[in-house]
Design goal:
It contains 14 helices and nine strands. By secondary structure, it is of the alpha/beta class. The protein has a single domain, classed as TIM Barrel, CATH 3.20.20. It binds S-adenosyl-L-homocysteine. Residues 72-73, 110, 112-113, 141-143, 163-164, 166, 205, 234, 236-237, 239, 276, 311-312 line the site of S-adenosyl-L-homocysteine (SAH).
Length: 358
Amino acid sequence: MNTDSALLAKRLIDGEKLKESEYLLLLSASDAELKEQLRQAAVKQRRRIYGNEVFVRGLIEIGNHCKNDCYYCGIRKSNKNADRYRLTPDEILFCADEGYRLGFRTFVLQGGEDAAFSDALLAGLISEIKLRHPDCAVTLSLGERGEESFRALYAAGADRYLLRHETASPDHYKKLHPPALSFANRMESLRILRKIGYAVGAGFMVGSPFQTKADLAKDLFFIQEFRPDMCGIGPFIPHKDTPFADFPAGALEDTCFLLSLIRLIVPEILLPATTALGTVHPTGREQGILSGANVVMPNLSPVSVRKKYSLYDNKICTGEESAECRDCLNQRMQAIGYKIVTDRGDKRTKGANNNGNL
Ligand code: SAH
């Protein structure tokens, strides 16, 4: 085992902050044995704070119209083959009601950047969900809507906002996005969301085109400094109708290693084992949980639109009804010794600052 990286791993496990250059070394020089040590330490942290409980979020994909043209994304504006849809407020409420019945206490409204979902429409929808289900959290994942909109939706009752930073490297950001999108605005949006009072989720893809280990070290350092409440990471998966169609998918092992590192960097973080992880490997989500993740996000969207919300090829769970998805995940989690709970699943802070050194 490389002694430098072993020392760094020990410092991370002991709750010390590392420099960006040290994250790079850890990413470059960790062998299988060290990775396994880090995985076990991450699971220990996860268990200390969240026990064997796994939080669920009901994902409602409210529409796939998007004004942006991200090179990796299947619902980008220029994809003429995308079959566009928007759910109506009634359809979305129906999904939430069904989700509530199935034990979900968090609903995530996700979609492209689409002006047709006006602040007024969304605010009405959010307050109606909260009125019907006051014990639930509403999470939004609707892109860079701007401060005024973020404020209006927070005032309507939204609790959390997922806005992956996608990459913490400005140069890499330019290789993934057209010039109309700016790294500075993405990062500023995250700061604004936090200032308003949202629980904030950052995140990035693993193995996205042109990503280097130095870029990933920047991502880890950003997570350490910004300390988001949530972090969504999953492998990049090519979509056939995008400029990145011919790039390879990100690896399961790399994603799991990063999940472990993120759990150690911010022990109390809410960390999903994503659908993308379940898409690159049949037991990807289980392996994600066993690497330190503590959230799963099954799909609550109507089956009629599931295939249309295609960010990448071969996405799993596009044919099942919501109840089947929930049952399937219940069984999968049980099989590895974890259990899905009926809970809003807020971030826990209890004992979260002593890094396992009880
Ligand atoms: N419009 C919203 C939601 C985007 S979809 C927003 O801008 O935040 C949610 C996430 O899916 C994205 O942040 C991106 O990281 C991920 N994603 C998009 N295309 C992907 C692909 N081809 N492979 C893996 N993940 C992808």
